[in-house]
User: Which sequence fits this backbone?
């Protein structure tokens, strides 16, 4: 039954919607945590340490964090896979008359497609920069996330990469949230305006909240 559902377009759209909402919940929590950087190094580093001790003593050190990471990886892979397969299915379903004349994709479709690619590349860079320190500038300091964040956003390219990705994220959420609501049966003609307003508010708050961190470093408020 699960296989049959996955093979259907409705099933893939449902997977996209559910995985997208899981990631959205994480993003809200992640943004709130990021803003703790405005309370100083002690507060921010303490928060980063707390993430590794959540659930103790029932959960071992970092087990909860790794559980969250695994759920996120599954959500990202499921979201990207279903999006790709739906896109390929849509292309194959086009009439033969489009073989020599490719129709232009709509604004929302292009935004979601390229936004997804940008965000995928950003996730890889973000992990290599602030989690493993592989591409980090200024010397990665294990256990000192506050200083690592300041180092990243003290470079022009760190700011450019992050801000561009957050703008793409905002557009992705703006279109994706409403689409997910329709897929899960929450949307209706009566609720349409409210859902679009909520999507716009979420996109704006998350974009502004994430961008506030590099802006704080650039302006010297966070140093």
Assistant:
């Amino acid at each position: 039954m699960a296989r049959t559902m996955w093979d259907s377009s409705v099933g893939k759209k449902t997977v996209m919607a559910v995985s997208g909402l899981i990631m959205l919940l994480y993003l809200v929590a992640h943004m709130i945590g990021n803003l703790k950087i405005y309370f100083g190094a002690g507060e921010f580093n303490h928060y980063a340490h707390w993430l590794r001790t959540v659930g103790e003593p029932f959960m071992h050190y970092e087990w909860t964090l790794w559980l969250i990471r695994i759920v996120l990886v599954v959500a990202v892979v499921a979201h990207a896979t279903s999006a790709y397969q739906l896109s390929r299915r849509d292309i194959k379903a086009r009439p033969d008359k489009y073989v020599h004349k490719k129709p232009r994709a709509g604004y929302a479709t292009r935004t979601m497609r390229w936004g997804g690619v940008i965000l995928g590349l950003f996730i890889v860079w973000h992990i290599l920069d602030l989690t493993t320190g592989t591409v980090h500038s200024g010397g990665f300091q294990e256990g000192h996330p506050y200083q690592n964040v300041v180092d990243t956003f003290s470079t022009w390219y760190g700011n450019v990469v992050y801000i561009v990705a957050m703008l793409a994220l905002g557009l992705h959420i703006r279109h994706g949230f409403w689409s997910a609501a329709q897929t899960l049966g929450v949307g209706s003609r009566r609720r349409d305006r409210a859902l679009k307003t909520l999507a716009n508010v979420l996109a704006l708050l998350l974009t502004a909240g994430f961008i506030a961190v590099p802006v704080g470093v650039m302006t010297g408020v966070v140093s």
Q: What stands out?
A: Residues 100 and 149 are 49 Å apart (CA to CA). Residues 100-104 have pLDDT under 50 and may be disordered. The chain is about 75% helix and 0% strand.
